[in-house]
């Protein structure tokens, strides 16, 4: 499935999602590696197989093997870190903030691609996963790296669009299930 097939699978009640997918696909404000890495990392983070597969199929030919692996790594490592650091941030017992995480996360220090691109992907996945502590941390690294506010906003906008595509497809599946149950 390609991004065009994904757009055509989005139901009419989510026409805005289709339009946003189109604008995301034609965006030229990011480098190709940033853009297609976001497709991969956010597609995986959406936890929707159709979205994941379509975005990886779209991105894989446009990314080096190292960049494709790094985008997948960003999704995987943020899947772990976002759960842990969201807990640390939200728990009433602030003692957790003083304890070592004891989580391996070497890929953050050596992602195999430009550190800024990896941080951008990590930020977008953290936005999908709702980890404020990770969002703040990655945004700070990006700002220190002189990444523009517009670029950061674009990455998070991509995350929002990709997450909404997954939700629209799931809503359409629930309509199909409801129709079958009524028959």
TrEMBL record:
Gene3D superfamilies per the UniProt record, alphabetical: AhpD-like (1.20.1290.10)
Annotated keywords: Antioxidant, Disulfide bond, Oxidoreductase, Peroxidase, Redox-active center
Reactions it catalyzes: N(6)-[(R)-dihydrolipoyl]-L-lysyl-[lipoyl-carrier protein] + a hydroperoxide = N(6)-[(R)-lipoyl]-L-lysyl-[lipoyl-carrier protein] + an alcohol + H2O
GO biological process, one term: response to oxidative stress
Pfam families (alphabetical): CMD
Highest taxon of the lineage: Bacteria
Disulfide links within the chain: 131-134
InterPro entries attached to this UniProt entry: AhpD, AhpD-like, AhpD_core, CMD-like
Key word Ribonucleoprotein present: no
EC number: 1.11.1.28
GO molecular function: disulfide oxidoreductase activity; hydroperoxide reductase activity; peroxiredoxin activity
Coiled-coil stretches noted in the UniProt entry, renumbered to this chain: none
Positions annotated as active site in the UniProt record: 131, 134
Record-annotated Carboxymuconolactone decarboxylase-like domain positions: 95-172
Family listed: Belongs to the AhpD family.
Function: Antioxidant protein with alkyl hydroperoxidase activity. Required for the reduction of the AhpC active site cysteine residues and for the regeneration of the AhpC enzyme activity.
HAMAP family to which the protein is assigned, alphabetical: AhpD
Protein name: Alkyl hydroperoxide reductase AhpD
Organism in which the protein naturally occurs: Methylopila jiangsuensis
């Amino acid at each position: 499935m390609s991004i065009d097939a994904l757009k055509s699978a989005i139901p009419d009640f989510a026409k805005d999602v289709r339009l946003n997918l189109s604008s995301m696909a034609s965006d030229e404000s990011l480098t190709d590696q940033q853009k297609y890495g976001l497709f991969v990392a956010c597609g995986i983070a959406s936890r929707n197989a159709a979205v994941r597969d379509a975005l990886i199929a779209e991105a894989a030919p446009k990314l080096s093997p190292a960049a494709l692996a790094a985008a997948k790594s960003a999704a995987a490592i943020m899947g772990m870190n976002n759960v842990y650091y969201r807990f640390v941030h939200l728990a009433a017992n602030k003692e957790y903030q003083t304890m070592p995480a004891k989580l391996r996360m070497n890929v953050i220090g050596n992602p195999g691609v430009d550190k800024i691109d990896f941080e951008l992907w990590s930020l977008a996945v953290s936005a999908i996963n709702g980890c404020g502590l990770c969002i703040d941390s990655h945004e700070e690294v990006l700002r220190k790296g002189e990444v523009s506010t517009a670029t950061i906003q674009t990455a998070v906008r991509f995350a929002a669009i990709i997450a909404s595509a997954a939700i629209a497809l799931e809503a359409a599946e629930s309509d199909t299930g409801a129709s079958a149950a009524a028959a």
